[in-house]
Amino acid sequence: MTIVLMSTSCTNNNLVDTNDAVAENSWLYAKSAKATVEIKDINHAYTIQFKLRHTLDYKYANLFVVMRLKGDSLNKSTRYEFKLAKTDGEWLGKGSGDIFTYNFSLLKDYRFAKTGKYEIEITQNMRDNPLTGVSDVGITVSKQPEKSK
């Protein structure tokens, strides 16, 4: 199930905020997190974030993902590594029971060259398929607040 929230609130600059529950806490290569965002103003900077929730069953201290950004003539693919735990095994995310939550910046102060619709897709890029212990994945695209002059 995908939940997409769009807001025009003055205090919330999110253009897209998705959250996808991962079936059976097992993230498959084929089940990517996806979002579509419409960029109407190329004069603003944007931030794209990846959201992750995992359980205690997640057995690695890191996570590799690939983000694809497509639209108009843009086709960008970038691999990221995120650190999830300290060397002693302590989780770095915000914990609530046996669930840990993270927000990772993929692109910050990013400026789109053209207006239009862009597709964002994030896939897990670990050796395990499925990747056990991942409960939710999501994408947030927000407009950067204007800087004071």
Topology:
Layout: E1 2-4, E2 14-21, E3 26-27, E4 33-39, E5 46-55, E6 62-71, E7 74-83, E8 94-96, E9 99-110, E10 116-124, E11 131-132, E12 134-143
Antiparallel strand pairs: 1-2, 2-12, 3-11, 4-10, 5-9, 5-12, 6-7, 6-10, 8-9
- In total, the number of strands is 12
SSE ordering: EEEEEEEEEEEE
Q: pLDDT average, as an integer? A: 92
Distance between the termini: 42 Å
- Characterize the main sheet: 6 strands, antiparallel
* Beta strand %: over 45%
The radius of gyration computed from the alpha-carbon positions, rounded to a whole number of angstroms, is: 16 Å
Give the class from helix and strand content and strand pairing. mainly beta
Structure notes:
The strands form 3 sheets. Strands 1-2-12-5-9-8 form a 6-stranded antiparallel sheet, with no helix packed on it. The protein has a 4-stranded antiparallel sheet with strand order 4-10-6-7, with no helix packed on it. It has a two-stranded antiparallel sheet with strand order 3-11. Strand 6 and strand 7 form a beta hairpin. It has no helices and 12 strands. The protein is mostly beta strands and 149 residues long. The N and C termini lie far apart (42 Å). The protein is globular and about 45 Å long. Helix content is 0%, strand content 58%.
List its traits.
149 residues; mainly beta; 12 strands
Question: Would you kindly provide a brief summary of this structure?
Answer:
The protein is about 0% helix and about 60% strand.
